[in-house]
């Protein structure tokens, strides 16, 4: 019976080093609170109390859910558009040549500009946040997909076509695996940007969500609550990454890893 023993250790080491990084960040945070005082940076204890208060009063749940919806909906819509156009651009040179400068311009446009335009087009509310996230995520996925399409092994594609493999099979077995090394980092980047942009758009548009909580805390000059909202948003981002992207990373790493050691039972 084959018993895999290698894959567990890299994952365990990665988790330990990740925890060490978070502890180092917490230590630096506490040092900053002591060095600069509560009017600049609240302590970990004050922020923790604010987090508990937001959760206990029922403010955190609806706000985090609203931000999660804005971020994931915008990321999914923009990412899907960028991915499809990237695939089309990799298959048809004119599409890629025409689309690349457009998406480069979109990528270089500051998100704050899109927030202002979205407020004029959609008015205050969640629509502005979702649109801003979508227009931010689309170029990230487009450029990654286009690069992956251009770097794929064309010999394998020609062989599959020669043997008359179905188009869906060619896409699933040849194109997607070749794109994985480009798409997984791009998805992680797009997801992180989606949360940041969603919160920023919520602050400026007055929409519900973490951004709305941050705007309220700012108006009350409540630094612990401000940091509490930031901590909660980061926690939700980490959970979303672990649930949505970590399985893809593990699956990709498993495909590229050497065969595990085995023992006969």
Automatic annotation (TrEMBL):
Pfam families: BPD_transp_1. InterPro entries: MetI-like, MetI-like_sf. Residues 64-249 form the ABC transmembrane type-1 domain. GO terms for biological process: transmembrane transport. It is a multi-pass membrane protein. It is found in: Cell membrane. GO terms for cellular component: plasma membrane. CDD domains: TM_PBP2 (cd06261). It comes from the Bacteria. Coiled coil: none annotated. Keywords: Cell membrane, Membrane, Transmembrane, Transmembrane helix, Transport. The chain crosses the membrane at residues 12-32, 68-93, 100-122, 128-146, 167-195, 227-246. Belongs to the binding-protein-dependent transport system permease family. PANTHER family: ABC TRANSPORTER PERMEASE PROTEIN MJ0413-RELATED, ALKANE SULFONATE ABC TRANSPORTER-RELATED, MEMBRANE SUBUNIT. This is NitT/TauT family transport system permease protein. It comes from Xanthobacter flavus.
């Amino acid at each position: 019976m084959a018993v895999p023993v290698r894959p567990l250790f890299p994952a365990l080491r990665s988790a330990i080093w990740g925890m060490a990084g978070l502890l180092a960040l917490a230590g630096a945070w506490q040092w900053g609170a002591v060095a600069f005082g509560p009017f600049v940076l609240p302590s970990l204890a004050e922020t923790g109390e604010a987090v508990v208060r937001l959760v206990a009063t029922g403010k955190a749940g609806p706000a985090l859910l609203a931000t999660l919806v804005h971020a994931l909906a915008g990321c999914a819509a923009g990412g899907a558009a960028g991915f499809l156009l990237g695939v089309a651009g990799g298959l048809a040179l004119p599409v890629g040549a025409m689309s690349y400068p457009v998406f480069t311009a979109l990528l270089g446009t500051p998100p704050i500009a899109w927030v202002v335009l979205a407020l004029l087009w959609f008015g205050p509310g969640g629509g502005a946040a979702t649109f801003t996230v979508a227009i931010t995520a689309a170029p990230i996925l487009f450029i990654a997909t286009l690069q992956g399409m251009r770097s794929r092994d064309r010999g394998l594609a020609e062989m599959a076509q020669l043997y008359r493999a179905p188009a869906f099979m060619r896409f699933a077995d040849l194109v997607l695996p070749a794109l994985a090394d480009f798409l997984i980092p791009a998805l992680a980047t797009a997801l992180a940007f989606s949360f940041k942009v969603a919160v920023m758009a919520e602050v400026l548009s007055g929409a519900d969500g973490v951004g709305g909580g941050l705007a309220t805390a700012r108006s009350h000059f409540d630094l612990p609550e401000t940091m509490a909202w930031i901590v909660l948003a980061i926690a939700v981002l980490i959970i979303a990454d672990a649930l949505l992207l970590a399985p893809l990373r593990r699956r990709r790493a498993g495909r590229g890893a050497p065969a595990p050691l085995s023992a006969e039972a």
